[in-house]
Amino acid sequence: MTLRLDLFSTPTAAKTLKRFANAALALEGSALPKSLRELVQLRVSQLNGCGYCVDAHTKEAAAAGEPDVRIHLVAAWRESTVFTDAERAAFALAEEATRLDRGDGVSDATWAAVREHYDDDELGALVCVVSLITAANLMNVIVRNRGGSYVPGAFAASSS
Q1: Which of 48, 74, 111, 124 could be 137's S-S partner, Cβ–Cβ 3.0 to 4.6 Å?
Q2: For the chain, how far is it from start to end, CA to CA, in angstroms?
Q3: Whether the predicted model's global pTM rises above the 0.90 cut
Q4: How does pLDDT run across 76-94, given as a tens digit for each residue?
């Protein structure tokens, strides 16, 4: 499977992607911990089959100090003992939001669970994290951008 189109080589997509990266950088100032943002992005990327984003967010989570065991167990978070109740609530929200075709969106029970652990600003950031990574997954899957070559910190560098 080869890359269909390098979006950064097209003027309109490159301009859009730079703004997209800048939007994502706004999350750096949120109270939602970077390591949690990376783990949530990893989980959504796994669900969406985006190799590039799985590669990127695995490496970014490690760079943010996440231990290997937690990174490796994100795909099996329900069957793992290494995540807090707050992180589990965030993963549940991310999964339900990512799998909108399976029901009525995010359930009231899941929403209540995340409300127990996150304030409005953190919850707003979490919703934005899930939404932005989903859009990134779609772009990368459409053009068949593959994983394996991401270097930690490249996202921050691409927005400057």
Answers
A1: 48
A2: 30
A3: yes
A4: 999 999 999 999 999 999 9
Number of Cβ atoms within 10 Å of the Cβ of 159: 14
CATH assignment of 13-158? Answer: 1.20.1290.10
* Distance in angstroms (rounded) separating the CA atoms of residues 83 and 87: 6
Specify the residue for token string 């459409």: 142
3-state SS, residue 159: coil
Nearest to 154 by CA among 17, 49, 39, 3: 17
Question: Can you give the residue ranges of every domain in the chain?
Answer: 13-158
Residue 38 contacts residue 70 (beta carbons within 8 Å): no
Dihedral in degrees, nearest 10, Cα atoms 23, 35, 128, 3: 70
Residue 4: DSSP 8-state: S
